[in-house]
Structures are given as structure tokens and as C-alpha cells.
Amino acid sequence: MPGAPDVGSYYGEQWAPLAMSSLSSLFSYSPPGTAKYAAALASPSQQVSTTMPELETEGELKTLPAPMTIETTAAAAAAARSPEIVKVRSVWAHNLDEEANLIESLFPSFRLAAVDTEFPGTVHRPSAPAYTLTRKQKYALLKKNVDELHLVQLGLTLFDAGGRLPDLGTGGAARYVWEFNFREFDLRRHAHAPESIALLRSKGVDFDRTRRGGVDAAAFGPRLRRWLRAGLGRAGLVTFSGAYDLAYMLKMLYGGGGGYRLPGDAATFEFVVRAVIGRTLYDVGKMARHCPGDMRGGLERVAGKLGVRRAVGEAHQAGSDSLLTSQMFMRMRERYFDDQDALTAVAGINFGYLNFTSCEYT
Asked: What is the distance, to the nearest Å, from the Cα of residue 53 to the centroid of all Cα atoms in its chain?
């Protein structure tokens, strides 16, 4: 099993100045005012993506400072369960600036964000059963995989305290989420898991198109930093078993095009993620294990147990999965975490067990 580099040299030489520089610039920025929403565009084509390993909770992490109170009315909860027509806006190099500006204009009204990442599987796997791994060993595997692999897609869902999505001036006739396609992964020369590539191909992913027209990750990093300063996920950033999601976001922030390496140990990784990406983090996979009954399983299985139906697309599509994650968060919030202290108690990063037996969500 691969090991992590020495944290002392890594953190001292690379991360300390980088983290402090990022922190000083990140929290001195004032969010812009609400811009006029752009007119809705035609429904973009959908791209499907591969899976990420399932993670389970291992022990309790330190809780974060109390997040903003999220109030849910019955009407808003119904809207979260049964949204209007939802469309996925597919983002490529040619429309990145337009879509990025539109997204940024929505932050003052939609202060929660759910994310999902899709990547070419995992190439470094444990030699022992996953449940026997220590937290240190699990992070070492995560680091090794994320350091060597390239992101395929990032899904982003913006929503408000009632679970409503942006309608972009349609008067509620349609709601929107986003799916970013990246160009860095080259099937001919980059590491990947064959079963994950087979899944992507079986669902129509065109790797030639992503190479030709995908977003440049190196150019996307500064845009993502700007979003975080402007208020992306200010009331909460939501993932499902999201350690890999957060790791890929961190990689995008500081050199998504290559050459970047994650921090050497899990504690440093958590510190930087909380400081730079989000001070209030919710992991729906972790929350599920604090709900009554058996809520074990992957994204699709837990959604079914909660009675949450996918509003658009299908599994392994980043935009669709980010939306499903947001809907599951709202359902859990309504049913099991209506007390703010209870919600705060389950905030944090989930490093649980890694499931390498299949490229499918369990």
C-alpha cells in the first residue's frame, strides 16, 4: 500500500506559506451585490461520469462552529422533494466565462451548495480489507489517487434554505444545476481504472470531446477561488461521502492542470479544506449514519431509503448527483436534524471505509 510523504517537510516547505496566503486573501473580500439573472438558455447536452469510492463514518470528528440556522417550511420542503422541471447546464471552455459569471451572481440568494466530482476510478487500492485500514492509511490512499488522477466532471447545485434552485428568470418554469467538463484527462496516457472507463463509455462519455472542448482546470482554479471569496456555500457546502470531492476541489484550487500534491496528512488536509473551501461542511453520507434505522449504502441506495427521487439525469452524472445530494440533505434536515445543535454535531469531513470492490455506487 502506498504511503504518504513526510508531513513535516511537506507542510513546512509548501503548505504553510500557501495556506496563510490563501487565508489572508480569502476572508478579506466582500461579496458583490446581486446581479440581474441572465435569461435561461436551452437545455444543454448531458454528460455522464464515473463513480467514486464509498466512504463510511469512522469515529467522530471535531464539530465546526455553529452554522447559520436553516429553517424549513412545509411548502419549501415539498418544493425540495418535488421540484419543477430541472435542467443541467453543461459547461465547456467556450461558455465558461458566461456560466461562471451567472453562477457568481446567484450566491447572495442561494447560500447553500452541493458538489459532486467524477473521475477515472481509483488506481491505488488496499492490500488488506478496507475495514481494517487506519485513518492514516485511508488518507494515504486518497492522496495517492488524487495526486495522480485528473478530474473528469464537477457537478454544482446551488440552493437556498428552503431547498429551492435558481430559476434564472423563468418564473419557476424551470430550475437549473451545473455540470463542468474538464479537458485534462487523456485516456491514452493517464492512469485510470478500466472498469470506470468502461462505465463512462457505456453511458456515452466522449473522451475526445472533453479533450478538445473541456474546461482548462488550471484556468478554473482562480475562478473557484473567486467564488469562495464571493460566497459559494457560505451557509454550508454539502457532499455525499465527500473526502474525494473536497480533495479534488483543493487540487483544482491550486493547480488542477498537474503538479499539485495534497497535504501529507489528514489533519493538515482537514485544516486547509475548512479554511479555504468551507468552514461549514455537511457530508450526507455521514449524516445518514446518525439517522434512525439502517441508512447504510451509497448515494442511490440512501436516497431510496429516504424516499428522494432523482429529478434529472441518472447516477454517475456529476450535475444530477449534486442535485440528488442537495435533496437528500434537505430531507434529512427536515426529518432528523431540525434542531441546529443536532445538525452542527454531524458537520465535518468523512474519511470512512473505502469500497474498492466495484465502480458502482452501492
From this structure: 13
